[in-house]
Amino acid sequence: MRKINIGLLSVLFLFLLASCSNSENDKAAKDEIVYASSKDIRDINPHLYSGEMAAQNMVFESLVKNTEDGVEPWLAESWDISEDGLEYTFHLREDVTFSDGEKFNAEAVKQNMDAIMDNEERHAWLDLVNLIDENVVVDEFTYKLVLKHPYYPTLTELGLTRPFRFLSPNDFVDGTTKDGISGYSGTGPWVLSEHKENQEAVFTANEEYWGEQPKVNAVRWKVMPDHQTILLALEKGEVDLIFGSDGDMIDLDSFSALEEQGEYVTEMSEPVASRAILLNSNRPITGEIEVREALQYAVDKQSIADGILNGSESVAPTLLASTVPYSDLGLEERKYDPDKANNLLDDAGWELNSDDGYRYKDGEKLELNLYYNSDNAQEKTISEYIQSDLREIGVELHITGEQKQAFLDRQKSGEFDLQYSLSWGTPYDPQSYLSSWRIPAHGDYQAQTGLDKKAWLDETITDLMIEHDEENREAMYAEVLSYIHDEAVYIPLTYSRTKAVHRPELQGVTFNVSQYEVPFENMYFDTE
């Protein structure tokens, strides 16, 4: 923190000079938000997953929108649901065009939905894709979605950032989108007008937008992989906004330092997702439930919440917060108790060696590896806290930071003892998050493969997604979440929040329900 504060003070004078000496630049800045991101936007094809979700959300829209008040109309003005829950008939807005001038209508919706279904295997993590039976054009502005089985999260999943967003059919390649597209023509409030890979992207206001026009003319997305560079750019006045979740743009030490300085506005969302550590049940040591249970009691979550996260996040007693639908189950919290952790390991035959202070069984040392995303600003510090806690009970923990892609590849391979996990947050939790547990490409699946009832777990998740009776569905969620809790596959840490830091002149900075979206369209400059 000391280094950050010194940096803030050292550039303050230069910042004031710059802001006072160039009124012409100030005037231009008021019509353009400069947003600092550690990541390039990459390919923002709305039907694929390699692009940044915040950028996809700026350009492409969905039939419905997830809000704090539930699902609301968007490109569809209204909808009807058949009594058997199999047919959703959407009545589309008639005043919408894609940014290339193409008309948005039921035929365009069908072409997009068919293109998504043409890549069904890639989207299989989302159960709605598996349940779509037919896409029907009823008339020019009426589209009907036909399902194989009733599916209660249908509207919620149609409102997600991807893949159910709409691209002009003129941008399809050979009638599909799965192998690439020729342009990014959406119906959203922004148009991607310039992209220099790994440098910056410029989004300009869509002058033909059907809804309320953005309050500024442009958003300049500047790529700054180094977090200290982002901070310095903010202090120099080169950046207006830092916005992100889980430390991917700014760590909490820096956030607190900027808050204390008082030169910038700091904002924090309500809790949006669950931060946890995966314990791989399919590894030799963490495959022992006694070891997994001991690790639960060994980690001082409160110290992590207070010491690293500066009290900004609350301790997570269970994987999903009780406020998440179907998750208020009264499950027993495993509080910090190193004595209990030691007793569990003693009973499991892991004996403490008085010479080196570590535990052994049958000549094998109790030695584990934790992997974290090195691009994340705070995971290393949390890892070091956990390493220290486990040392106190005789466990040697090695921590390894990896670039994001290597980290994701390790999730797919299952080559980890411990690994960071973050639930997807609202509006994905619990349905979409649990649905992904059945997909081998996800770390959750790999960590669960050693469980005796893994096949039952996957089957029950599949069944509950199509269970029409609310009471039965509640009972099935309770079974799944209770089983995972009892098997100690996750060490819940805290419930995370999205954070924003911006110049005082930038107004209208708010949060969407999804941590992956940045509502630039609400923002504007006010120098009065």
Largest sheet: 7 strands, mixed
Number of strands: 23
Q: Please, how many helices?
A: 17
Q: Kindly state the mean pLDDT as a whole number? A: 92
Cα-based radius of gyration, to the nearest Å: 25 Å
Summing up helix and strand content along with how strands pair, one would put the structural category as alpha+beta
The dominant shape is globular
What's the N-to-C terminus distance? Answer: 32 Å
Instruction: Summarize the amount of helix as a percent range.
Output: 25-40%
| Sequence of strands across the biggest β-sheet | 8-9-10-1-11-21-12
Please mark out the parts with pLDDT under 50 across 5 or more consecutive residues, or reply none. 1-29
Tell me the fraction of residues in β-strands, as a range: 15-25%
What does this entry look like structurally?
- The protein is an alpha+beta fold.
- The protein has 17 helices and 23 strands.
- A seven-stranded mixed β-sheet has the order 8-9-10-1-11-21-12, covered by helices on one side. Strands 18-17-19-13-20 form a five-stranded mixed β-sheet.
- Helix 1 runs parallel beside helix 7, helix 9 packs antiparallel against helix 11 and helix 16 runs antiparallel to helix 17.
- The longest helix is centred in the first third of the chain and has 20 residues.
- The N terminus is likely disordered.
- Pfam families: SBP_bac_5.
- Keywords: Signal.
- This is Nickel ABC transporter substrate-binding protein.
